[in-house]
Amino acid sequence: MISLNNSKLLRSGFSLGKGDKLFQDIERDIIRVVFWEKMVTQSRIISETKIPQQTVSRLLKSLTQQHVLIQTDTFLPNLKGKPGAGIKLNPEYAYSFGLSILLDAISVAVMDFSGNVIEAHLEEMSDMSIANVLSCAEKLVAKITKECNINPEKVLGMGVGISGFFSSMDGKMNTHHMLEEWSQIDIVELISSHFSLPTWILNDGTSAAAGEGVAGVGRNYKNFVYLFVSSAFGGGIVNKSEVLLGTYGNAGELGDMLPPKLYAHPNLELLKRILKKNGVEVPSIYEMNDDFDVDSPGVEEWVFKVQDSFDLVATCCSALLDAEAIIIGGHIPKALAQKVIARTDVYAQFRRGAKRPLPKIVVSGVEKYPVCIGAATIPIRQLCL
């Protein structure tokens, strides 16, 4: 479930249509094509949307006058007819913020209207109380706003990614025990009131998957499963470029596929314990990727313990969802993810000399801060796509 607060939806920089819509449905159809393809021609838009040529021409003129779209000097080939002028989104038309509330840190990112990550910061914290998180988040938002010269009137809203699962249809979450104050409260209302922004919330794994689909290698696949390897293990699912939420918002709880008495959960806390036992001091999991040695003593032990878990989850995802790709991300070091991928075995029946098509298994393209980057995509997805 994505929870939306409409009470302060947008200020003077934007005007709303019906309900929570910033654009008419037909305008969103056009914006959606341009967003996912980066730059297109009018002919391509007509082909993808099936909207009549005269209507597309009129809407493109209107959206260009509103500075939503930009007509470039670049000419792109068309399957039929002459090359056409390239049309792209105006990245400065609007911005969105993303906030991640992790077990021992928060991070904030800002994204422009084209889906580019402008800036992101992470702050590790020993006190994850509501008051402390809000205070720190406010400082990070102010810092980024000033450094990046973001016009507050152009901010669409804020997405939030947090560790936990939705416990009912009311949008409240049963958070990790290290986030005790955040459990079973109206987080959307809390964040929205504090920042005076429309607010949405997802769990951390689903949020990271949303970000991978916009700012990572997930953009190359319309259907993928994202394995979120962090302090805990979870994930998210993207289908036809849309984030799959399920009934309550808990789709992608991949860790629940692994009975703890039978399978070791492939998380980075287990890795830290094994490395420490082998005399390897590990910094924060958020800095692991900066200087991680896959040949360190203890790495092979971790891989041995968790490889069956990766095999089972990948096989289940392949069989159930028939995804194009399985993406390993979160805060796992890229070199370690590559080692896991090289050994992952996805089971499939062998019939008449062939297996059914299997998903590619690839490393995430988001280098750092996947949850807040994913959270920053949510306002754009909800209001514009």
TrEMBL record:
Signal peptide: none annotated. Gene3D superfamilies: 3.30.420.40. InterPro entries: ATPase_NBD, ROK. It comes from the Bacteria. The lineage of its organism: Bacteria, Pseudomonadati, Pseudomonadota, Gammaproteobacteria, Alteromonadales. It comes from Shewanella litoralis. SUPFAM superfamilies: Actin-like ATPase domain. Transmembrane segments: none annotated. This is NagC family transcriptional regulator.
